[in-house]
Amino acid sequence: MTWTPDQPLIRMRDVHKSFGAVPVLNGISLEVMKGEVVCIIGPSGAGKSTLIRCINALVPIDSGSILVEGQELHDPRLDKLALRRKVGMVFQQYNLFPHRTALDNIMMAPIHVLRRDRASVEAQARALLRKVGLEGKENFYPGELSGGQQQRVAIARSLAMAPDVMLFDEVTAALDPETVKEVLATIRELATDGMTCVIVTHEMGFAREVADRIYFTDRGVIVEHGPPAQFFAHCRDPRTRQFLSQIL
Amino acid sequence: MKTPASFPAARAAPSALRVTLAGVPALPIGGRHGIMLAVFLAMSMAVAQAQTGPAPPSIIATMLKWTPLLAQGFALNIAMSFLAMAIGTAFGFALGLGQISLLAPLRAGARAITQFFRNSPWLVLLFYCMLLLPFEVRIGNSIVALPGWAKATFGLALPVMANVSELVRGAVQSIPSGQWEAAESLAFTRLKTLRMIILPQCIKRMTPPWMNLYAILTVATPLTSVVGVSEAMTLTGDILSSEGRTELLVPMYLYLLMWFFVYCYPIARATAALERRFAVY
Q1: Which helix (H) or strand (E) is B125 found in, with range?
Q2: Is the ipTM of this complex over 0.90?
Q3: Average model confidence (pLDDT) for chain B?
């Protein structure tokens, strides 16, 4: 089966996952079209991080099906490296490589994984740093950058692989309110440029503004989903209402 | 009265007993130990001098006379320490990587070897190497003699190997899992992740305990005198028996101690300095 852009870029069907005896995902189904921005919200412990980590096979699933561009992830013969070239991921804790400069962090994977030539990668990496507003920080080590700056380097690092979809796992949760803005602005710009994004977030205002669709998860299931206007104004499930009343 | 703080080493003293990364105890020597050694040496020379009759040459003159020979022996100690460290580090690194392998049998094997040599007395390993290794080996058509010091060096390299193996394992496991995840999500293979992302960060963490291990190895090299290697300790014994003067016993051995101290103390200081510098993680 070949994938065409009119089909969902990501299609999860009845995904189950337990850590030992603890069930985390209890039948998750969702679809993300190309160019769509999907926000996943929900209380802590709802399985949001696990859900997003399944999409680039950092977490193997127990049962169900995940198709990314038509490729089944729940398959022992899966070429994980090929998958991960298509799916970029940004983490809550940035996870930059502390022994390399900002520029090196961005250049490492394109040079050593994609085997592209150094000169073109460097030009691209400098352009990406400029894009995330960090021109002049090329030779800074991660330890010398603020949290927000590190997170933007991490976004640039993922973008350098030219992924088809970007996963954001609570990328502003470790930042102070001031720097949250810079990072959200960067993601907003990406979304406007047409990048397919799956965003786990606690920033409701941001989700409402940037998302094409919002999924609300609780205890390992999708409780409800819909476009932001409809979702925030007319949510039907009492669990969603309770969550929103606490957070807004 | 001088406060203890006037000796830089006295300030470092509380850290001297700290257990380092992989559980190798830090070598607890400080500057005050050197001063104590020097004082003991001076006192013992004075006592020895007072006990001697009119005829024999002074203690200092005797010590100076034998210094070139002692230096020769000490050079062998250092050479053995270098070689054992190099061999032990090379094999230990491989063994340590084996301990974090994804292949269960390799991991179990590396773990067993590491634990075996880490928990064996150094002297017993030395004896085994002296007895089990041949005195010559055939490489192709030529026969290479294996002198005692070479066998002893190999014997010392075994516990070094096991300790380095643990250092590598401990350092790799101390790197936050986020580093692995970030590398994985960028499609790095496991091998590339290790080589380009994990190990470079480990080297920094491993250097202080590795230097500490070297200092421990160096002060352990006189063990080889028990198996007949003509290093500084053996030579000191030979010198004493040829002089036949019992009053020389204490000053000569103290003199030998000074040699080791002067060599190892700067290493201990450098280790402590590096630990402080790398502590900002």
Answers
A1: helix B122-132
A2: yes
A3: 86
SS (H, E, C) A175-213: CCHHHHHHHHHHHHHHHHCCCEEEEECCCHHHHHHHCCE
A240 to chain B, any CB pair closer than 8 A? The answer is: no
User: What are the DSSP calls for B203-269, one per residue?
Assistant: HHHHHHHHHHHHHHHHHHGGGGGGGT--SHHHHHHHHHHHHT-GGGHHHHHHHHHHHHHHHHHHHHH
Whether residue B186 and residue A109 make contact (CB cut-off 8 A), yes or no, is yes
- With H, G, I as helix, E, B as strand and everything else as coil, classify residue A88: strand
- pTM (2 d.p.): 0.82
In Å, what is the CA distance from B103 to each residue of B106, B107, B168, B188, B199?
5, 6, 17, 19, 19
Q: Provide, rounded to the nearest whole percent, the portion of chain B with pLDDT above 90.
A: 64
Interface test with A, best of B174, B180, B185, B199 (most A CBs within 10 A): B185
CB count within 10 Å of CB A66 equals 22
- Interchain pair B192, A98: CB under 8 A: no
Stretch (H or E) spanning A242:
helix A238-247
pLDDT of residue B5: 41
Residue type, A136: G
> What residues contact residue A205 under an 8 Å CB cut-off, 6+ apart?
none
Q: Mapping DSSP to helix (H, G, I), strand (E, B) and coil, where does residue B144 land? A: strand
Q: What share of chain B is helix, strand, coil (3-state, %, to 5)?
A: 80, 5, 20
Q: How far is B206 from chain A (nearest CA, A)?
A: 15
